[in-house]
Design a protein that fits this description.
Shape: globular
CATH superfamily: Spore Coat Polysaccharide Biosynthesis Protein SpsA, Chain A
Distance between the termini: 56 Å
Structural class: alpha/beta
Length: 273
């Protein structure tokens, strides 16, 4: 198999705690024809030094994650682009498997990579348990794309923060491409310092653009924002009952997330009338 260049694009902000592990995992890929582009929101920690250590291309711009990703695409030279977060580790075969799937079928417009949460706290274990019930559902979003398609649809929607990662594969899907292709090798989400309070504040912030998401992506609104849709995924799967303490934790966590996002939505609605 030819080895087309893959551009890995990573938005960062004060990501020094996890970025070294993230970039090391890219170096350790079985697939070697990779360039790394870090788009940094002017971090005040040692993020730039870590990028230099690993030979990653560093671009510094202000803005949300969607804008950072779109700017990364403009600097990417690869046939394919892979978007990951700075607190993620790729298991060794992720890029190899993504390339193999994409090269095998010209109608593949996006590849989903399974994720696992890594950390010792109860809430991280809850999040890891939760993720397994999303496999094959509309909750998942692709991370690996042909660059030409990303450019053709204009990249991510920069007007929304709420589920911004879903906006790009949705645009590509509307062109008639398959954005539900899937690999087996997982990404590990490093959440050893997970804070429930910080997580809910983030959901509150995301909720401020919920109105725009609902307006622009009505067809995705049911799966992304519906409490009932997720409850069906959980309660309709016998595996959900295998670990009652984690199952209860999932229900509590999702309830708190929905409340936080709704509060953000209502705050913004009152502000803007």
């Amino acid at each position: 198999m030819d080895e087309p260049l893959v551009s890995v694009i990573i938005p960062t902000y004060n990501s020094g705690k996890t970025l070294d592990r993230c970039l090391s995992s890219i170096k350790n890929q079985t697939y070697k024809n990779i360039e790394v582009i870090v788009v940094d929101n002017f971090s005040k920690d040692n993020t730039p030094e870590i990028c230099k250590k690993h030979g990653a291309k560093l671009i510094q711009v202000e803005g949300e994650r969607a804008r950072a990703k779109n700017i990364g695409v403009k600097h990417a030279k690869g046939k394919y682009v892979l978007f990951i977060d700075s607190d993620m580790e790729l298991t060794p075969r992720v890029v190899e498997e993504c390339v193999r799937v994409a090269e095998s079928n010209p109608k593949v417009g996006g590849v989903i990579i399974p994720e696992r949460s890594v950390g010792k706290s109860f809430w991280v274990k809850v999040r890891d348990f939760e993720r397994q019930f999303y496999a094959g559902s509309d909750i998942e979003s692709a991370r690996f794309f042909p660059k030409e398609l990303v450019e053709r649809v204009g990249g991510f929607d920069e007007d929304v923060v709420f589920y911004e990662e879903a906006t790009l594969p949705n645009k590509i899907r509307l062109l008639g491409y398959d954005v539900k292709a899937r690999i087996n090798a997982p990404i590990h989400h490093i959440e050893e310092d997970f804070s429930l309070w910080r997580w809910l504040k983030k959901k509150y912030y995301y909720g401020k653009t919920l109105r725009k998401f609902q307006k622009n992506y009505k067809h995705m609104d049911r799966s992304k924002t519906s409490v009932m849709y997720r409850l069906k995924l959980f309660l309709g799967n016998r595996g959900f009952y295998s670990k009652p303490h984690l199952a209860i934790g999932v229900l509590i966590l999702k309830g708190l997330e929905f409340i936080s996002a709704k509060l953000g939505y209502l705050t913004e609605r009152v502000k803007n009338g």
